[in-house]
Design brief:
The strands form 7 sheets. The protein has a 5-stranded mixed beta sheet with strand order 2-11-7-9-4. The protein has helices spanning about 1-10, 20-25, 50-55, 70, 120-125, 130-135, 150-155, 165-210, 245-250, 275-280, 330-340, 340-345, 355-360, 370-395, 400-420, and strands at about 15-20, 25-30, 45, 60, 65, 75, 80-85, 85-90, 95-100, 105, 110-115, 145, 155-160, 225, 230-235, 255, 265, 270-275, 290-295, 305, 310-315, 315-320, 365. A hairpin with an 8-residue loop joins strand 19 (about 290-295) and strand 20. By secondary structure, the chain is of the alpha+beta class. The protein is built from 15 helices and 23 strands. The two termini are about 30 Å apart. The protein folds into 2 domains: about 1-185 and about 405-430, Adenine-n6-DNA-methyltransferase TaqI, Chain A, domain 2, CATH 3.90.220.20; about 225-365, Adenine-n6-DNA-methyltransferase TaqI, Chain A, domain 2 (Alpha-Beta Complex).
């Protein structure tokens, strides 16, 4: 109630009017700019793909430039324009906003700018709300490539406080932006800290796991090069129960792992569950907990994980049950994760597939191999250091990723609270309601 009272106090009795975007501004589509046109210095330019990968909610400078000659032929964003990436394979990413706070910048195709007289960051925040997304989804078209036209975007309505008093309206919008930016800043600070920790983690991992591949130091008693097969008790592969057969999937409670879930992390659950009948009628089989799992097929080949529960897998996962008298499973996991690119490069065929022979022949440095107790102690020392950084940088249960997730949810809560005005029905008003 206190939050609602704050909104009421902020509005101070003024009316919030839901207006179609076409009434408060103009959409202008970009043209003719390709990634190959970028040069090191020149006229500022933004490609639509960069809005997905390079920018946050707002920006005042570009990462890329084009020639002055090409810039003369292209449409340009001005300060306070709202830039929109309007093409994606993912519905949620269609119409991704970027509040432009810089000087002129050329823009690419598959991108629009919205020119208006509102607070650009107010609009950008609103474009992220579920109320906006619900309206947008009605207008998405295309099969594989999804997009929204400027004509349809013009029909979407947004809440504008007292539009007949622009000065007061902008003051209210600015205060809402100030509050939401404060939450965004917290997330940005944590993200910067996470990036620093990742660099620190990579440094220590490189130091701890960089062994001389050109020599075998077994004679010196320091490290001996074994194969993964040498330290593996058993190799497991999996299978896929016939898709579409409800007997194999409905009400299943057996965890069944797919390669898209193998992401260099511990696995505590799976997205799909299968039934006992599925195991009886396929090559899928139970594997014990704490195996080192490596994706062996397609785009995910080479990625690794550890299963913290007994589970089954599809045929594109290879599972190493490590002999705990020879090596620690977490030491092996850190080693294969560290060598992701090297393992992936061993893939064969058009899809770059791996197999049990390739994986089991991959070499592993075993410290003090002639003294098992000392070897396991040294492996445990390395694992303890790497696990601490791994928790801070990748764990969704602990560490910075969890903090970032919580801060993002906090931002979304207050964003929807501040931008869900009483006059707004669920999903936004219908067009006839604002006529």
């Amino acid at each position: 109630m206190s939050h609602l009272s704050y909104i009421e106090k902020l509005l101070d009795g003024v009316e919030v009017v839901w207006l179609p975007l076409g009434e408060i501004g103009q959409f202008i589509r970009g043209n003719g700019l390709q990634k190959k046109d970028f040069i090191e210095t020149g006229f500022p330019a933004i490609h639509y793909g960069q809005i997905y990968t390079k920018y946050g909610l707002s920006a005042d400078e570009t990462f890329t430039y084009i020639s002055e000659e090409l810039a003369k032929k292209l449409r340009k964003a001005e300060r306070n324009d709202l830039l929109l990436a309007t093409t994606s394979e993912n519905d949620d990413d269609v119409v991704k906003p970027l509040a432009w706070l810089g000087n002129q910048s050329a823009i690419s195709g598959d991108m629009m700018l919205f020119r208006h007289e509102q607070n650009v960051k107010y609009l950008a925040h609103y474009f992220l709300t579920e109320a906006f997304q619900a309206q947008k989804r009605k207008y998405i078209t295309g099969a594989k490539v999804r997009r929204v036209s400027s004509g349809d975007l013009s029909k979407i309505v947004v809440p504008i406080p007292c539009p007949d008093n622009p000065e007061k309206s902008l003051a209210i919008q600015a205060e809402i932006v100030r509050i939401l930016d404060a939450f965004s800043a917290m997330t940005a600070e944590l993200t910067a800290e996470l990036n620093m920790r990742k660099k620190q983690y990579n440094y220590y991992r490189d130091q701890l796991l960089s062994f001389d591949l050109s020599a075998d130091h077994a004679g010196e008693g320091e490290v001996e090069w074994k194969t993964l097969g040498d330290v593996t008790k058993k190799w497991y592969s999996g299978g896929t129960p016939k898709a579409g057969n409800p007997e194999f999937y409905e009400d299943g409670d057996i965890p069944w792992l797919r390669t898209q879930e193998v992401k260099f992390a511990d696995i505590f659950d799976t997205d799909v569950k299968v039934t006992p009948a599925a195991l009886q009628n396929s090559s899928a089989k139970w594997i014990p907990e704490n195996c080192v799992i490596i994706a062996i097929s397609g785009a995910t080949a080479g990625r690794s994980a550890i299963n913290k529960i007994p589970l089954t897998t599809n045929q594109h996962c290879g599972c190493l049950e490590i002999d705990d008298k020879k090596a620690l499973y977490r030491y092996v996991f850190h080693w294969v994760s560290f060598n992701y690119e090297n393992i992936k490069a061993l893939g064969q065929g058009a899809r770059g597939d791996l197999n049990s022979t390739i994986i089991k022949n991959f070499r592993l440095p075993v410290p003090y191999a002639n003294d098992p107790a000392k070897s396991l102690a040294e492996q445990a020392r390395i694992v303890a250091i790497l696990d601490k950084f791994d928790t801070l940088t990748t764990s969704l249960q602990k560490g910075l990723p969890r903090e970032i997730e919580l801060r993002q949810k906090q931002y979304e809560y207050y964003r929807d609270l501040l931008l869900s005005f009483p006059a707004c029905p669920a999903g936004g008003p219908k067009s006839e309601e604002v006529a």
